[in-house]
Each structure stands twice: as C-alpha cells, then as structure tokens.
Amino acid sequence: MMQKLYTLPLIPLRGLTIFPSVVAHFDVGRKKSVAALEEAMLNGEEVFLVAQKDPAIEEPEREEIYEIGTICKIKQILKMADNTIRVLVEGEKRAKIVEYIADEEYIKASIEELKTEIEKSKEIDAYVKCLDKEFMKLLKTVGDNYIDVIKSINPLDNPSSFVDMIASYSVTEEETKQEILETLEIKERIELVLEKVKEGISIAKIQNTLSNKVKKSIDEEQKQFYLREQLKAIQEELGEDDEEKKEIDKYQKLISKTKFPKQVKEKANYELSRLKNMNSYSSEGNVIRGYLDWILDIPWNKHTKENIDIIEARKILDQEHYGLEDVKDRVIEYLAVKQMSKTQKGPILCLVGPPGVGKTSIARSIAHSTNRKYARISLGGMKDEAEIRGHRKTYVGAIPGRIAYSLKEAKTLNPLILFDEIDKINSDYKGDPSDALLEVLDSEQNKTFRDNYLEVDIDLSKVMFIATANTLETVPRPLLDRMEVIEVSGYTYEEKFNIAKNHLVSKIFKEIDVPEEKVTIDDSAIKEIIEGYTRESGVRGLERKLSSLIRKGLAEILNKNQETITIDKKNVEKLLGKRTFDFDKIDTVDKVGVVTGMAWTAYGGDTLPVEAMVMKGTGKLQLTGKLGEVMQESAKAAYSYVRANADQYGIQENFYKEKDIHIHAPEGAVPKDGPSAGVTMVTALVSALTGKKVKHNVAMTGEVTLTGRVLPIGGLKEKSLAAFRAGIDTIIIPKENEKDIEKIPNSIRNKLNVISASQVNEVLKNALIGEDTNEN
Prior knowledge:
The protein is α/β, with parallel strands linked by helices. The chain is built from 26 helices and 26 strands. Helix 8 (262-276) runs antiparallel to helix 9, helix 17 packs across helix 19 (540-560) and helix 23 crosses helix 26.
C-alpha cells in the first residue's frame, strides 16, 4: 500500500547517521544547510536528515547521498562562536527519498515514510533478549553508564526502537550504521547489530588487558621511585653515604686531579653537573657515566719521552730484520730529520709490498727504536666512517672511534699508530672511512681532531702514523698524497735463507717451547724448502713449512725413541711430501722460435717461455696460453713490427698472406698478463720466420713499440733472480732500466751478463745465433 508523501527540508550529514528514537546533536555550517534549518523551524520543526556517501564533498548532488534517512524533530538550536549552529534533534521515523528538489536557497525532498510491521512472536522475543544480554555484557566490559538510557525503552514492547538505540551506541562504522538503518525486517536488523556488539566485546577485552598492563608498569615505576626516595631519606638520617653520592664524588675528584685541556675540563664538569641533577638509575645517567669514563681514560697530558738515536735505531732494525736495506735507509733518514730538528711534523710513511715481507713488524721495530708505544688499527674491510670518528652520543650503543681506542690502549698521546691494510678500505651508505683519515693524516688538521662521541678536540700532531698496503692501486689519491711511499719488495733467495736460518727457526722453537738441540735443520734442508715448497715474496709460507718440518721431526724422535734428529735435504721430501713447486729449467739446446722471457708474479719473479710456430696457411695469427689483454696487444704489436720490417730481417715479404703464425705460452691454464713481453714475442717471431735459433742461455724482458723502441719494465730484481735460478747467464733488459741493476744482489749480479737495449735490433743481435755478426 502506497504511503503518504510529504515534503521536508533536507540536510546532508557528513560522517553521521541518526536512528529513530535516538537523540543526537550535530553542527551545521554550510549555507544551504543553515537555510534548510531555518525553513524547518518556521514549518513544524521537522527536518529530513540523510547521510552523505563521501563526507569530503561540500555540496552533494542527488546521487551523492543515500536514499534512506530519518525524519527528525528539532529540539534545540544553539549558535556557536565560529558562526556554526549546533542542533539537537530526536529521530522519529525512517523515510525514503521519492523526489530530490535542489532549490537555490536550500535542499528539500519529497519523502515517503517507511513503516515496519512487527508481529509478536517467541522467536523475535528470543532474539531481543539475546541482544539485550550481549549489550549489557558490552556495557559492563567498557564500564559505561549508558544503561540508564536503555532502561527507558522496554525491549519487548518496542523492539525496533531498542535495536536502533543499541546500533547507535555500539556500531562505529558509518557504512554499517546506514546498512542497519536501511534494514526494515526486524530479525535481520537484530542479527546485524548482535554481530557488531560481539565484536565490540572482543575489542573492549583486549583494550582492558593492555590498559591493565600499562597501569601495572606505571604503578611499579612509581613504587620504585617512592622506595628510593624513602631509602635516601633513611640513609641521610643514619648518616650513611649513599652510593650515588660516592660515585659523583669519585668523578669530581678524578676530574679535578686530571690535567685536562681547558675545553675538555669544561665539558667534563658540564656532564658531571647533568649527572648530579639526574635520576642515577635512568638510561641517560648510564650514557653520561660511560662518557665520563672515556674522557678520563684518554691520556690528555701523558707523553712517553721520545728517544731517537739513529745508530741505536739502525742496530735494532738490523737485529729484527734481515735485508730490506732500502727500507731501513729510508727509515733512518726519516728518524735523522726528527732527531736533528726535534720537530713533531714529518711525512706519513706508507710501506707498500706483498704479503709476508715484514711491513707490520718494521712499524713495530720503529716504535721500539723511538721508545714510543705501539698501537695497530686494522683497516681491512672497514666501511663505516664512524669507525674512525666515533658515533654521536644520540645513537643507542654509541662508542668512540678507533683513534680514541688506540690512544686509550697506548696510554700516551704520542704513540706510533699503524694503519694496517690501508688499501682495503671500503665505503657504503654510512660514509667513506678514507675521508675521515684525510684529517687524521694531515699535520695541519690533526691538531684539532674531533671524535663525534667525545665532542672535544684531540691533538694528534705528536702521534707518529705509519700505513701499510699491498698495492697502491686501490688507495684513494687524496690519501696517498698525504703519505710518503716506501716500497718493500720481496726477498731474494739468499735473504730468505738467512731469515730462515737466523730468525725463523729459533722463533718457532721458542713458540713451541722445545730446546733447539732436539731438531737440527741442515742448510740444505732450508734451501730445499725455499726452492721446492714455497713460492712467495714474503716468508710466511716458509715459516709454516719450517714449523711443519720441526713438528714432524719431533714426532720422528718419539716414534723412534731417539734423543735428537738431524734433517737434511734427503729427509725433507720424506717428511713434507713431494715438492710443491719446480722452477722452470732452461733447455740446454738452442731452438727456433723458443724464447725465455722474464715475468713478475705475486709470488716474485719467474721465467716465461714463449713459443712461435710458422705454418702454411692464409695469414692467420693465433694466440694461446691464456694471455691477458695486455699480452695479446703486445703480440699484435710485435707481429705488426715484424711485418713492417720483414726486408730488414730477410723475411719473405708476403709471409702474412701465405703463413699462419701460432704464438703460445706454455702452462695454458695459468693466466698471464703484463707489459713486458713485447721483445720476447718479436724475437720468437723473427726466429720462427727466419729459421735462426735463439740462444738457450739468454732471457729478456721489455715492451716494444711499433717503431721498435724497447720500453722500461718493473720488478727487475725479482725477474733477474728467477732467471738466475733457472740457469740463465745472460739477460737483456731495457736501456731505461739500467738504474735498477744496482738493486740486484751482488752475489747474483756478478754472475749475470746484463745487456741493455734501447731498440729491438740490439735485442735480436744478442739473442739470435748468427745475428751477432750482422750489422742491423
């Protein structure tokens, strides 16, 4: 049956749904809503309230508000200070919009009342009682007195109003409220509201549990504070010194007794005053205690008396290190300047060389010879700038940087600090440690080095800094600019022998605490280990092999029930197994296209044979032997040079069309690269193409240009040692490397015929059989 239609002013509500039988208030501020309110007051005080779908829309259209709302009676109007109107209304009936009328002044609507006929039944009564019971449980859980309002409605007499009242209180989501408002069938409406009431009970229980936990925690803290205050009062009455007062007095005494720089003393007193006014058990109090401990641990005014005597220093260096004359000379020069001038300034030494050559121990010896305390900072893998500068105190777990740690450990402000592995610094999003080191290693800046944790200046100008690195390639250029580089090259065969005999053997016996007389190691055994079981620039591997040999010798003594054992060359293979390395031995026969080159590796020098073979073909050049890019380019440059100068060497001009050439470096599985194989490849090519044999006792090194000029190389000392070890008696080197000949030990230099060459022609003249009689 069609309900009666009538027209009422309409006010769209934002974020609010009003149910019948519920009293609510809301604020009106929009111009059309105020006009609609005024119209309602003039005509029966009734207004139609309906919710907006999107509360953000200022002036909603028909499709932007819901279809079903509530006819309300205006109870009270109150004008507010901000020109809005607060309205108190009571919901009366549900109604549906039939026609939406948007006037210029206000919105009105033709509406149709929605009535719900409720037939009394036991099922409805049961639903209502169940809802009533759950709602009472919710009110009890949240501790609300809303129950007085609910009591005004008898649930069984007016179930619709009762359900609407509960929905208005217990449902928070506006969309759900609108769904309940639009549900006319009473049973469905009760089911919806009942579900939301049970959800509310669950949420309220969780909130109560959390609230009780928080309250308990706060009560416990208040209790502890109260008890502490009582304890303090009791201790004062008894005349006992409380621990906190003792601690502050201790800090006060230490600060007044320690000779601080002015700014450090001010900072220490400031932090102590903060500690006095703070609860001693607070986390901030612990931070301040840690800070004061660090301030007091730094040796602000303590220095060891530096004793520089270059004669004594030379004696100590010679005792602790065999060989390394260049390094020792440079260190003595460095110390001589400091002894004569008494200045604290000076270059930062950077010892560069392969692993195991004694860079770190040299730094320790310098500290020993200058009477300075020694501290070592390992930079390998360091990524965080705070490792050098320290963390700011605002961070949890903040600590000072490694510089402050080193000064604390050394207990002096003028130690020798070694930056070990400076070439292995990394960087990430936390900063670049090398940038922090720029300040540390600059004598103009390190007077006022500031640690982020300590927040005061530390004078590092009296510290002697030494750095070590395996290579300079990865050291940042600005950092390298602040240091003076000293190259520590690998040891010669003789140096290794003397180091092993005079230092390593006695060191090993001392470490294992066994008398040296138990195991006697013959010189031939040491030489056999150096030749066949180690191939390195340093002596770490040699020390490990000697240690292994001594251990196995001791085991033999016990197995055979002997008193002592002597180990010679014959015993070495029995105890250590087969030789690990075999150095290349030269052929005793002159061959065509086979040339002995000299190479430098991470283990020191080595010989590198290069073979060239010519075959009938179409002019292909094939390179094998796992040659790197640089060596491949050297081969191509050598090929071009030979092709351009074919006439000069009596080579058929069109060989590049009719001959295939294969250049090979034996041990193909071993990668080879470096800029020193050019002359070797030219010699091999000329020999192969002319049929002239290469002298078997000649080795060579040097890069070649397209015009035949021989370029200088590095590592001449190591290469010469390797050539001599392989049985070579003549080496050909670039002219520009003549200055490096003096670096070759005298014992080897006197047995080698060293020929310098500036042009390829001179190399060929001395390397090919039959060429030494020709004028090229």
